[in-house]
Specification:
The chain is mostly helical. About 50% of the residues lie in helices and about 0% in strands. The termini are far apart.
């Protein structure tokens, strides 16, 4: 039940509700255990909704390395934020040392092999693309390893 309330708090960007739920969870299972079967942790799910203040709070309870924790198909919190066009959050993750070159591992699916940069580009999140390029995402991995996904930048 607390998982559902936490998910709802993320969806409404309700920092007070998130704080109350996490503080009531003495073992921090809501932060450290997957919320879904696909390996989404609280940080991944919160990243989908883009609240920097919620992410800052969650990271105050976790180690900074959590920003690079992948889910079951390799999506990191940075990837989740980039996929949904949350430029402020992408910038926050970049300044905290998020790894830029991780890629999705979903063989047979259209997003297999995508990095956060390519995902943001395919979804027309150009403010996110600018942040990632400025942070060195083009240098972080080979740009042209998938010719069908080459873009003129």
């Amino acid at each position: 039940m607390d998982r559902l309330r936490l998910i709802e708090a993320f969806e409404h960007n309700d920092l007070n509700a998130v704080q109350a739920l996490i503080e009531d969870d003495s073992e921090y299972e809501l932060l450290t255990q997957p919320l879904f079967d696909n390996g989404y942790l609280a940080l991944h799910l919160a990243s989908l909704h883009g609240s920097v203040s919620i992410i800052e709070y969650l990271l105050s309870k976790l180690s900074l390395e959590a920003i690079n924790q992948p889910n079951d198909i390799g999506e990191t919190p940075l990837f989740c934020a980039a996929k949904h066009g949350h430029a402020q959050l992408v910038y926050y993750y970049v300044t905290k040392g998020a790894i830029l070159h991780t890629r999705i591992h979903a063989p047979g699916q259209s997003h297999h092999g995508l990095s956060a940069l390519f995902c943001a580009l395919e979804r027309n999140h150009y403010s996110v693309v600018k942040i990632l390029i400025a942070a060195g995402a083009l240098r972080a991995h080979a740009l042209f390893d998938q010719p069908e996904r080459c873009f003129l930048l």
